[in-house]
Every structure is written in C-alpha cells, then in structure tokens.
Automatic annotation (TrEMBL), chain A:
Annotated localization: Cytoplasm, Cytosol; Late endosome membrane; Lysosome membrane
MHD domain span: 207-474
Superkingdom, taxonomy of origin: Eukaryota
Pfam families according to UniProt: Adap_comp_sub
Membrane topology note: Peripheral membrane protein
Subunit comment: Probably part of the adaptor protein complex 5 (AP-5) a tetramer composed of AP5B1, AP5M1, AP5S1 and AP5Z1.
Tagged with keyword Transport: yes
Keyword Membrane included in the entry's annotation: yes
Family label: Belongs to the adaptor complexes medium subunit family.
Name of this protein: AP-5 complex subunit mu-1
InterPro entries: AP2_Mu_C_sf, AP5M1, MHD
Chief site of localization: cytoplasm
Keywords assigned by UniProt, alphabetized: Cytoplasm, Endosome, Lysosome, Membrane, Protein transport, Transport
UniProtKB/TrEMBL annotation, chain B:
GO CC aspect terms: AP-type membrane coat adaptor complex; lysosomal membrane
Keyword Protein transport on entry: yes
Gene name per UniProt: ap5b1
Record key words, sorted: Protein transport, Transport
InterPro entries: AP5B1 (IPR038741), AP5B1_barrel (IPR048980), AP5B1_C (IPR048981), AP5B1_middle (IPR048979), AP5B1_N (IPR048978)
Domain AP-5 complex subunit beta-1 beta-barrel: 752-821
Span of domain AP5B1 C-terminal: 845-948
AP-5 complex subunit beta-1 N-terminal domain residues: 30-100
Residue ranges occupied by any AP5B1 middle domain in the UniProt entry: 254-639
Name of this chain's protein: AP-5 complex subunit beta-1
One GO BP: protein transport
Length: 489, 969
C-alpha cells in the first residue's frame, strides 16, 4: 500500500512539457522487486517516463494527426491506471495513475502487493485508491485554490515539496495529504487523555465561530420536444469553517427540508463526521423507487478540522427547473430566424446576482447583422462574432417571462471558439445564473439548529445560494444529443 | 570554488546512470559524505545531498559492505548534528533507512542495522519534549515511519517489541499516535502471519505474543522471529479473492487479548487521516481474516461512517472488507446498497474523473457475496447490476473521453448479458449504444478534435468487440465508416488500425474483411476527377492493406492503380513524387504475392512497365523495372520465395505497427535507396603540414651567385620544360580530407558501410572527378582519410557539390548530400615539380631562367603574351616579413630562408602555370615583385597577398599603412 515513484509534470496545452519534480521510493522499490520476482519491471529515467506517459495520455506529438502508439483503438484509456510500455514495448509498467488538471500532470506508480501471476484487478489494490487520494491532495496543494496558479507560486510550492512529502509520504506510504494553508505547528497538547486527531494541525483559542455555506448547483437539458423529456438535476454542498476550542469538540449541523420537499439523495460526508444515521444514506438517485423515504432532519455530528472543509454533499430531485426555456431556429434563405422564450418559475426568488444567456452560432461564419429584439435585458455580440450574449440582469420582469425574436445574417469566415455540438440546427442556449439566498430543494441549514458544545456562545453564520452549471436549452427544430440514460428507459 | 550542489543533484536525479558515467560511484558517494560532514555547507543544501541516497541507495552502495559503511557514516553525521536542524535529521533517518534496507543490511542483521534500530527505538520513546516546541515530535514521527518501513521490508523484525509499541501507542496523545498505530498494526499483522506459518501455533502463542512473551510465542526459532527472506508471501496483501485462501491461526473462539487490541485500534481509527485509516483498516482486515476466532462483526460499528464517506480510499477499504468477509459481515441488502452507492459514486458530479473511473472499475470487479463464477475473466458484471441501475451510467457525448469509454464498455457488457440468444436485436439498449456511436461519428464529421476521433474509433472497437454478431448494426457501421472515409480520407490510418485490431481480436468474425472489401469498393468507385493528391496517398495506403488479404479479389485495386497512373490529366507520373511512387509500388509488391496473381498478371505488368518508362523518379523507375522483371521472368512460386524474406519480416509485427511507418518494409526497403533527412557526414580539410612538405628539400650548399652562368640556366629550364611533354605530368592536385560524422547524433547512422562519394563541379575550371569509395565509417573510430585528386584546367578556387550512397547496419541503402567543398586559391599551389635529383642550385637557376623569360616575353609581346609582371608594396617590418615567408611560402621558397635581402619564391599551379615572387625589404617597405606566365592569375595572387599580409600585420602587431600596386604591363 505504497507508491514506488511520484512525478510532477508541467505543460502548456501539451507543449513545453517537463518533469518538475520526481521522487523514487527506494524501499518500496525493494519490496516491488521481491514481490514481482522475475516479472519485475524497473522504472526508467524521468525523461523516458515522461515520453511514455504523454503517449498514453494522448498528448504526445501534438502535430501528428495519427500516431500508432498513441491512437491505437485497442488502448484501454477507460481505466484510471495507465500502462507504460518500457523497453521498446516489451515490458509493461503498471498501474501508473495520472491526474491532469490545469498546467499540471501528477503521476504515481502504486506498489502491486500481490504475488506474481495474472494481473490483479485495480479494485484489489488499496494502493490505487490511496494513490488517487495522494495525487488529488498534491494537486490541491500545488495549484492552490485556482486551477491556474502564477508560475512563481507554483515554483515555490514545488520547492517546498520535499518537506511536504517528509510529512505526507516520507517513505512511499502515504500518511496524509499536504495541508493547504501554512499551518504553524501549534503548542503541544495540554495535559489530558483525549488524543488529538492526526488530521487536526493545531488548536483554536478564542471565541468559537461556525460558518456554513450551502451551495446548490442546477444542471439542465431542455429539448422543447415531445419526443424527449427535459432533464434537470440539483446537487448541493455544505462547506464549513469551524473555529471551536478543544481537542475533539463536538458540533452538530442539521439540514432541514420544507414539509413537501423531496428527500436528499446520494449523501456523502466528510471523514470528520463521527456517526451517521443509516436513514440518511438510503435515498439514492440511481434507483428512485422509494417514495416514503426519510426526509430529514439530517443530522451531521462531527468534530471539525481547523481548515475549511466540505461537510457533506447531496443530490436532489426537484419537480421543476428554475428557468424553463424554449429555443427555435429557422433557416430562411441566408438568414436565421431566432425565437427564444425564458420563463422563471414562480418558486424561484426573482433576484439574481447575475443571469446571462449565451447563444453560440459556431461553424456558420461571422454574425453580420443581428436584427434581434429582446423584451428585457441587453444584447451583445461577442468579439469573435460567433456568439450572442443576452444579459438579463438582476431581475426578470413582473411577468417572469422574457423573449427574444429576430433575424441574424452571417457572412465571412469565423475565427474563435468552436464546438462540434453546435452545427447547423444543432444549437443551444447556455444559461449562466446565480441566485443568492435560496436553494431549489428548499434545503437549509438552520442557524439555530447548529449545536456547538462549548463554554462560550459561538458566533454562527449561514448562507445559501443557487448557481447554474451546464444549463442547456436546445433548439427544438434541430437534433439534439442524448444526454442521459433516463431517455432509453 | 563552490560546487552547485542543487544542480548536480538535479542532474543526478534526471538520469543517474548518465550522471555516473561522468564520474565514478565511489567518488560521488565520497563527495556526498564529505560534503555532509562539511561545517560550511548549509543544512538546506545537505537535505538535497541526501536525496540520491534516499532514492538510489543501491546505485551508490553497490555492495552490502559499502551500504554498511555509508549507514554508519550517516549515523555519525546524525549524532553530531545539532538537534535544531530537525528537517535535516529527519532526512538523515530516511536516507539511513533506505541504505540499510536496500543493501540487505537489515535482512542480514548487520551491526549498523542493529545500531540504527536501537537508535530509532530510542528516538521513538524519547518523551523529553516537555517544552513542546514540536521539534522532537517530528523526529519521533519520522523514526516511527522508518521503523514501519523496516518492518514492512523485513517482516517480523519488530515482533519482539510488540508490547512496547502498543504501550507507546496507547500513551501518546499528540498527533503522533497515528504513527504508532500504523507501526503497531503492521507489526501485529506480520507477527500473526508468522504464527500461522508455525505448525501447532494456537491461542497460547497468540496470547504470549501480545504480552511480549516472545520466547513462548516462537517455539521453533527462539532466536529470531524474522521470516525467511525468501518468503515474499508475507509482503503480499492477503485479501485477493472472496474465495482466496488466507493462512489461518486456529485459536478457538476466545482471543480476548487480540479482540481488545483490535477494538482499541478501531475505536481510535476515526482520529487518523483518511489515508492512514484506510491502511489501518486494510491491515486489520487481513488480521481478522487470519484469525477465525475473531468475528468480522468487530468492524460493524465503523461501517456506516465508511459507507457514507466522500473519501475514495476509505470507501475502497470498505469494499476490501466486503471482499474478505462477504456474507459474514454484509447481508444481501448491504450488498445491494453498496452496489447502488458505487453506481452513484461512478457518476457523481463532485468527484474527479480518475475517481469515477476507479469506481466503475470496482463495479466490474465487484466483490459479490456469492459470485457465480470466480473465473479468470477480466471484467464481470455483478448480478445485481440491472440495466435500470446501469442506466445512470449510459455514455453521452457530454462525457469526457475516458469516462465515456468506460461507460460504453460497461453498457456493452450489460446488454451483452441482457440480450441473451436471439432477442438481442430487439434490445433498446444496444440500439442506444449504436445511436451513440453514430452521434460520435457525426461529431467527427463536423470537425471533431483529434481526441474525439480517437475516442470514436475506440468506442467503435468496443462495440464490435462485444456486439459484432448483431449484423444489422455491424453492417450498418461498416457502411457508415466507408462514407466517413470517403469524405475524410485522413482517417485512413484509424480505419486500418480498426481493421487490424478487430481481425486480431475477433478471429471468428469476418467484419474486418468486410470493411476492407467495402473500402476497396468505395475507393475504386469514386470519381477520379475529384481526387486530391492527399486522397490518393491515403487510398494507396488502404489498398495496400487490402492487398494483404488473399480472400479479397484485387481487380478493383489494379484498375484504380492503372487509372491514376495513366490518366491523361494525371500529373502523378510527371510529378515524380517519390513517396507517392513508392506507395504505388508497395501496393504492387503486395499484389505480386497475392494468391490471385495469375489473373492479375497482365494488367499488373502493364502498370509496372508504365511506371518503369514514365514515372518521373529514377528510383521508382528502377524498382518498377525490377518488379516487372521478377513478375515476368519468375514462376509464381519462385516469385513468392524471392519476396518471402520481406514478408516474413513484415509479418504480424509490422502489421501491428499498423503500417504507420511509411518506409521500411521488407524487400522493398532493402531495394530502395532512401534519402536522409539531414546531413550525416561531411568532409573536413586536413591542413597541409608545411614542415613536412619542405623536409624533403635537399639541403645542398647554395652555389655562389657569381658562378651562375647563362648556359647552365638555359639547360636547367630546358630540362624542366621537357618533363611537361608527358601530358599527365604534374597535372593533378591532391587535397586531403577526413570523412567525419556531423555532431548531431542519429544512432541509425553510427555505423556506415560501403560509402561511395560522388562529386559534381560547379564551373568549368576542373576536369570531372571520379567517385571515391570508403569502406566504412564508425562514429567511435578515427575518421578515414579521403584524398581528392583534382585536375585543374585553370588553377582557380572552386566549389564542389558532394553526395554519397551508403548502407547502414540494417541493410538499408541511403543517399545523402554532404556540405559543399570549398577549394580555395591557396590549395591549388604546388611546390615546384622539379626532378628528384635537383638541389637548391638547380631550382635557383630555373627561377632565374623563368623570371628572365617572363620579363622579356612580356615586354616583347605585350598584347598576345600570357606573361605579366607586377609589383606590390606594403609596409611590413623585417620580423613580420620573415614570419610571413615561413608561414606561407616555405614549401615554395627557392632561396635560403636566412637570406633576408631577397626571398625568391616559385609557385607551380597545375597544369602549367607559374608564379614567381621576388620579395625584398627596402627601408620600411616590402616589395613583392611578381612574375607569372598566366596573367589571369595576377588578380588572384594580388588578393592572396593582400589577405596574408593583412593577416600577418595583424598577427605581428604592425601597421600596414598603405599599398602600392603597379603593373608594369
């Protein structure tokens, strides 16, 4: 349950690739040699590993349209573990885990702790999930909060890696993920029998503060067609920042639903949650058969770490999408007739932080004339002349309905973004919005239900918001791609 | 000078073997250890210095004894290091651990390893950290990590210390308890494993072990509890298959002591980080699996917490629990619940791609309570995974590539099982998968990225792999692929690859053959007029793959070839594009061995003949002629045999490379002369050694000037002139070069054979040169000398183009171009071709005679004569003049070098020109009196003198202030 080696690679969209950090764990390698016997495959030097890895990830030789090793249709790219073909393809280094985010690719080679013989399934190797956790932790550490760190920040964090690994993975066996913030080692425990959790870097002193933020994200695919059912789903996360005194303080947060709310599904909790009621876990989005399921209150007793963390997440099936849209395009000679209608559901608070509708017209030429009228908001053509941006502002009109109607003429070649899912009448509107202080599921964290076992009265703040992601309204006169399995059953 | 250690260490890590080739292991190790002891070095640098020892201990310590010494050295550095350098001391512990483990010092109980173990245990127990500044705690944590690694690599090493470690774990209230818990579980697990290997071991032994009474625990080997080194079983995870065999220890139901230890570990597991918790759970799972006396229900209290977790490694350890204990810990409802959870996690929007892929992999290897078969089959669906449940994981075009492929694969399996016999065609699921594949194809058609193209072909392969037997779909896919190809010929290699792989993996299916046949049809049916050169290129590739199939009739291909090369509008033949020509030939070559050759003979011969006569590239013509000859003169059997060699080499391996390598297949490439892309080697002039040229000069005494009589002069000149009656006399210039590799390394060209150098003139001043042969050129050997024999018509500077043909070790022939060779004016100078017997006296006579002749001739016959004289003056000091004469004119000097009043220089320029110089110093000015029998050389010699005197003045640090150039003509 250890890693043989670890690599940090930086690149710029597949170019200027270099190994920025690498670490071989010699004692784990020693075990790997003994375990594998004659089928042992040594790790080649960093540059070779880099080339092989890029080939497997499909980003080597970016200027070649086809490369046999890279593009073979037999390749098992669907597995999280890659095979590196070393020694001119004669031997295979497996299972290499690679995680790519932003400008970084992180990779490690977990130890296969089974006797030589047929290759074991990944599911039998604990080192694989541990490797994934370690890589995700290192990613978060190296990239910081944004996915595009400044190069200086990255360089300094890379330079800190040896001391970070001394704590997190000194000899190849991962013990912890690197701490995100700079955590000064705090004073030793006061006398007492309570053991300090290993994931708690220090102790808080001062007035207890509990900060809870509930964010719901709604996704939707609307087709405006009888043949296809519109789809939408909602998932929520509760992020928590707790500063409470004590070695292992107890905090309980309760999520509640309105009386007719549909139960929270797919609940996942942070490891600091001390116990769970089985009824909280029963509702699942993958088999929505049980209507009489438990619908709260959802109690999460936990002992918080010092840094902010995601206490829990859930999904929810809400009866209606927050904005229902229809989109129709008609091709008339050389112009395109556009007709859009967006309707805000009455249950949604009509107070947005922002609300924008994007209408891309890719693969058509530049937008020459846009003779389009909107009943509300402002219309803009993007710099590349391939996108209409309709800014709806903070509020829908009283009728809760807005429309767009008009004609667009295209000419000239287009440059800029493309999307193979946006050709001819296969076209969509993508909505971007955020509504503060509301959730679709009705789920909320009641400030008064937060229990903190502490001598002083804690300051508790809660917030909630709804945001959109992948919110599509497809042109109903064209063919739209299938997006979910619910359609086939 | 300070060595930049950070850079050196980085260079070492980048490529240790490369780095060590520049130094020796001993030296580098010694340097590292010396620097570690150096008080001047900073501790941050010293931390760097330890990384080679941590990462590559066996490279730096090639033997156990070196390892032992190095470890002792590191330990002494440790004891001398001030305690405040915690990080360095921690790294020192890690380095020592690495060295001792990897050099087998630990397994052989060497003295250093015993001492080190003692040191680690001392540090681990040191609780003197009352002030609590945390420094000691970091060191204690690292020492625990080291102890654990030593136990992991030498299981049983610490079994005698079990009680001690348990005590430390229980006492510890700081975060360090995690390190002790990890160490404790591992030692306990290894110790119990060891007991399972002892015959007759039971409850008593286990109890004794836990109480630290090891003398009772180990009956067979009281001395050491360590397991033999050969047993790597103890290193392996014990949780493999639900049906796997785990070594067991029979204790009866009463193992209170063990239970209480386990309970305490589990109870505190919540306090560990998820990673350590997963590890702990896994070790405890193994332990409980080995001791049937402990019921698996001991884990029950942890389960809900673990099943609800968002951490992948914690959920995974729960799956491993299930794998180990199946229905003794998990009910059927639990199983259904866990599977649902897995499906949910496999598509959870908040998880990373790698995590969801891992969960999907877990579904395909789901640890069922009652698996139907425990066969070797790679991927199997759990019985409980209904199509309804799986529908949460249908692939969509919105998925990222690998997720989409994983889902596609899963659904192929779902519908493969679902369909059963006969009803498959009715399955809506398969219909969905097919539709999905077609939507992907539409994206490819609409200009999808390279990633989407590759993903589409991978999905197509998966579809065929599982569902090829549903002909309705597989035929329709074939048709659509052909259409796709016709509009996007650049997808040719993908299609060939798909055909290759389906043929390889689905031997019972004829789909690949069908696809190739269909492709042949669309290629040959398409109107030629619209073909671009690029299309032709890909068509030929596909056709050459099709020609490999004996079962596919080839008239269509023949027809296509013949139309593209004979088409009146075709510029194909005229263009002489070598690549295209060889693509055509590659198809022809495959056809030559095709079983239906008899019926193709005449049209194929026509094609080859046409190419041989009309193709615009000689190489292609030659090959066509060869193929034509082979085809028309050899019987089918012989032809097959001649071409068989190539075919064997080609075999499956080349096919596996999917014909992507454009060149280099079998006989064709053996016979083809390939063009190198870059310069491989060049000719480098060897500077003539002036001393050597002059050394043969006879050192006869110089005759007194006064004695020189006119008659003697005349006879000398006549004798000299007589030599030229032979037209070959002194007509050649020999220039010496070395043939050397260019610096850019291409290992294919390191060893070259049979190099034939060919030269082309760029002007008419020289006769044609003959080719030169060099037997071989090896990069590592001294470069061969090449003598270039030039026959000038006029002795002027020139440029030669050079090229070469050679073969490489793999038998391929290559043509390459060398950098041009510049022959400068100076290189045409030859010493006087005087008879061997002549001494300086005769040469002086000749000089005087020629000088006289030229001067008088020039005066008498100014218009027609070739003779000319001239005077050049320059300011040059005496010393500079001597230097100049010695450096540039020594081989041509007829007067004594010591005679500084007047230097007489006689230069011969083949085939029959002379330049005579009288050089004298008059006051500050040097006069170069020039006489030549070829007036056209005057300007050349003028510029040459200008060049060397300027150079000399600069070299001699004098001023050359002015020049006078007077021509007496």
């Amino acid at each position: 349950m250890s890693a043989r080696a670890l690599w940090v690679i930086s690149h710029d969209k597949g170019e200027r690739v270099s190994v920025r950090f690498s670490r071989r764990f010699s004692t784990v390698e020693h075990r790997a040699k003994r375990l594998a016997g004659s089928s042992y495959v040594a790790i080649p030097d960093d540059n070779t590993v880099l080339q092989l890895l890029l080939t497997e990830l499909g980003i080597s030789e970016p200027d070649k349209p086809y490369a046999a090793l890279r593009d073979d249709c037999l390749d098992r790219q669907r597995s999280p573990a890659l095979e590196l073909r070393v020694d001119a393809g004669n031997r295979v280094l497996w299972p290499v885990l690679a995680m790519s985010r932003g400008p970084l690719i992180l990779a490690c080679l977990p130890l296969v702790d089974v006797p030589p013989g047929p290759r074991p399934p990944l599911a039998h190797l604990l080192s694989v999930s541990q490797g994934l956790t370690l890589l995700a932790g290192l990613h978060a550490f190296l990239l910081g909060s944004g996915s595009r760190p400044d190069s200086e920040g990255l360089a300094s964090r890379l330079a800190a890696l040896p001391s970070v690994l001394l704590q997190a993975c000194p000899l190849g066996t991962p013990l912890d993920v690197p701490a995100l913030g700079a955590s000064a080692p705090t004073a030793h425990m006061p006398a007492g029998n309570q053991k300090q959790p290993a994931w708690k870097t220090g102790l808080h002193r001062g007035r207890p503060v509990v900060n809870l933020a509930l964010i719901e994200t709604v996704r939707s695919m609307q087709y405006g067609s009888r043949a296809r059912q519109d789809l939408w789903d909602v998932y929520g996360t509760v992020t928590c920042k707790c500063e409470v005194e004590g070695v292992l303080p107890n905090v309980t947060v309760t999520l509640t639903l309105p009386p007719n709310g549909s139960p929270l599904q797919d609940v996942l909790v942070h490891p600091c949650v001390t116990s769970l009621d089985s009824s909280i876990l029963t509702a699942s989005s993958v088999d929505n058969c049980d209507g009489s399921a438990f619908s709260g209150p959802y109690k999460f007793p936990f002992s918080p770490p010092l840094e902010p963390f995601r206490l829990c997440s859930y999904t929810s099936q809400v009866p209606v999408p927050p904005i229902l849209g229809s989109y129709q395009l008609k091709e008339e000679e050389k112009q395109l007739h556009v007709s859009v209608n967006l309707k805000l559901h009455e249950s949604v608070k009509n107070s947005f932080e922002y609300c924008e509708a994007h209408l891309p017209f890719f693969n058509r030429g530049q937008i020459g004339v846009a003779d389009v009228k909107v009943s509300s908001g402002q219309l803009d053509v993007s710099k590349e002349k391939s996108l209409l941006v309709w800014a709806l502002g903070q509020k829908f009109p009283k009728s809760r309905e807005v429309t767009m109607e008009g004609k667009i003429v295209f000419w000239g070649p287009t440059a800029g973004p493309t999307d193979p899912l946006c050709t001819d009448l296969t076209a969509y509107i993508k909505l971007y919005f955020k509504v503060p202080d509301m959730t679709l599921s009705g789920c909320c964290v009641d400030q008064h239900s937060v229990q903190v076992y502490s001598s002083t009265k804690p300051r508790i703040t809660t917030s909630r918001e709804l945001q959109s992601k992948e919110y599509f309204i497809w042109n109903s006169t064209g063919t739209a791609p299938v997006s979910s399995g619910h359609m086939i059953l | 000078m300070a060595v930049n250690w950070a850079e050196r260490i980085e260079a070492f890590s980048r490529c240790p073997s490369g780095f060590l080739s520049g130094t020796t292991v001993d030296a580098f190790l010694a340097e590292l250890l010396r620097e570690l002891r150096d008080d001047k070095a900073t501790y941050s640098v010293k931390v760097h210095l330890l990384s080679p020892l941590c990462e590559y201990p066996t490279l730096l310590c090639p033997s156990d004894s070196v390892g032992e010494e190095t470890a002792l050295e590191l330990m002494s550095v440790f004891t001398q290091c001030p305690p405040r350098y915690v990080e360095f001391r921690c790294h020192l512990l890690l380095a020592t651990t690495s060295v001792l483990i990897c050099t087998a010092c630990v397994s052989s109980h060497s003295r250093a390893s015993q001492d080190f173990l003692k040191l680690l245990l001392e540090i681990a127990q040191d609780i003197g950290d009352i002030q609590g500044d945390g420094t000691l705690r970091a060191l204690r944590a690292t020492s625990c990590d080291c102890l654990r690694e030593m136990e992991a690599c030498s299981p049983g090493l610490l079994c005698h210390r079990l009680e001690l470690i348990d005590g430390l774990r229980q006492q510890e209230t700081s975060r360090l308890h995690q390190a002790f818990a990890g160490l404790h579980t591992l030692v306990l697990r290894n110790a119990v494993y060891q007991l399972t290997q002892e015959t007759g071991a039971g409850a008593e032994h286990l109890k004794a072990l836990l109480e630290g009474n090891t003398s009772v625990a180990w009956e067979s080997d009281q001395d050491s509890g360590m397991l033999s080194n050969k047993d790597s079983g103890v290193l392996s995870s014990l949780i493999l298959e639900p049906m796997g065999t785990v070594p067991t220890l029979h204790t009866g139901p009463d193992c209170k002591e063990l239970r209480s230890v386990l309970a305490s570990l589990l109870e505190e597991s919540f306090l560990l980080t998820p990673l350590s918790q997963a590890e702990l759970l896994h070790r405890l799972t193994e332990l409980v699996a080995m001791v049937p006396g402990v019921p698996p229900s001991i884990f029950k209290a942890q389960l809900l917490r673990l099943l609800g977790t968002s951490e992948v490694c914690l959920f995974h350890s729960t799956l491993l629990l299930k794998c180990a204990f199946t229905d003794s810990l998990f009910s059927a409802e639990d199983e259904a619940f866990i599977l649902k959870r897995l499906v949910m996690l496999s598509q959870h929007p908040l998880l990373t791609t790698a995590e969801t892929l891992f969960y999907m992999d877990c579904i395909l290897h789901f640890p069922e309570n009652r698996p139907i078969s425990c066969g070797e089959s790679d991927e199997m669906l759990p019985v409980l995974l209904t199509p309804r449940l799986a529908s949460a994981l249908v692939p969509t075009v919105f998925n990222e590539s690998s997720t989409m492929l994983a889902r596609f694969n899963l659904h192929c399996l779902v519908h493969l099982e679902e369909g059963g016999e006969g009803e498959v065609e009715e399955d809506r699921g398969v219909a969905y998968l097919y539709e999905h594949l077609i939507s992907l194809m539409h994206i490819v058609e609409n200009g999808g990225s390279r990633e989407i193209i590759v993903t589409f072909f991978r999905a197509a392969f998966l579809f065929l792999f599982y569902l090829y037997h549903i002909e309705h779909y597989s035929n329709s896919l074939m048709e659509k692929l052909c259409k796709l190809y016709l509009h996007h010929t650049q997808l040719g290699p993908h299609l060939i690859n798909l055909a290759d792989q389906t043929q390889d993996r689905l031997s019972e299916s004829r789909w690949a053959l069908g696809l190739l046949k269909a492709l042949q049809k669309v290629i040959t049916d398409a109107p030629l007029a619209q073909l671009t050169l690029q299309d032709v290129h890909w068509h030929l590739k596909i056709l050459s793959r099709i020609a490999e199939e004996g079962e596919i009739p080839q008239p269509g291909t023949i027809h296509f070839l013949s139309s593209i090369i004979t088409r009146s509008s075709s510029s194909l033949c005229a263009s002489g594009d070598w690549r295209l020509g060889s693509s055509v030939l590659r198809v022809c070559r495959r056809l030559l061995v095709h079983p239906s050759l008899d019926s193709l003979l005449i049209p194929l011969a026509d094609i080859l003949q046409h190419l041989a006569c009309h193709y615009g590239d000689t190489d292609i013509q030659d090959h066509s002629r060869l193929y034509y000859t082979l085809l028309t003169t050899l019987s089918k059997e012989k032809l097959a045999e001649v071409l068989a060699q190539g075919a064997v080499e080609e075999g499956r391996q080349v096919k596996k490379r999917s014909l992507s390598c454009i060149e280099g297949e079998g006989l064709t490439s053996m016979l083809t002369i390939q063009q190198t892309e870059k310069v491989v080697f060049k000719l480098v002039a060897v500077e003539p050694d002036l001393k050597e040229e002059t050394s043969q000069e006879s050192r006869a005494p110089i005759p007194n000037e006064a004695e020189t009589c006119l008659e003697q002069v005349h006879t000398t000149v006549a004798a000299y002139r007589a030599q030229f009656s032979n037209p070959d006399f002194a007509s050649e210039l020999t220039l010496t070069y070395r043939l050397v590799h260019v610096e850019v390394c291409d290992s294919r060209f390191d060893h070259l054979f049979s190099i034939r150098l060919h030269f082309n003139l760029t002007d008419e001043y020289y006769e044609e040169l003959s080719d030169l042969s060099v037997p071989c050129l090896f990069r590592e050997r001294p470069s061969p000398v090449v003598k270039l024999r030039l026959r000038p018509r006029q002795p002027y500077s020139t440029t030669l183009h050079a090229s070469a043909i050679f073969s490489t070790q793999d038998g391929l022939s290559w043509h390459t171009t060398l950098p041009d060779i510049q022959v400068c004016f100076r290189q045409t100078f030859m010493p006087l071709p005087a008879p061997q017997s002549w001494g300086r006296a005769e040469k002086l006579h000749l000089f005087e005679g020629l000088w006289e002749e030229i001067c008088s001739e020039g005066k008498a016959n100014e218009e027609q004569s070739d003779c000319a004289t001239s005077l050049l003056c320059c300011q040059l000091k005496d010393a500079a003049l001597s230097f100049l004469m010695e450096k540039h004119f020594l081989p041509f000097l007829v007067s004594e070098l010591s005679n500084k009043e007047e230097f007489k220089v006689l230069i011969f320029l083949p085939p029959k020109s002379h330049v005579l110089l009288k050089v004298s110093s008059e006051e500050d000015t040097v006069h170069f009196k020039i006489a030549t029998d070829n007036w056209q050389l005057l300007s050349h010699i003028g510029s040459y003198l200008l060049a060397i005197t300027t150079h000399t003045t600069l070299a001699a640090d004098c001023d050359a202030s002015y020049w006078v150039f007077k021509s007496k003509n």
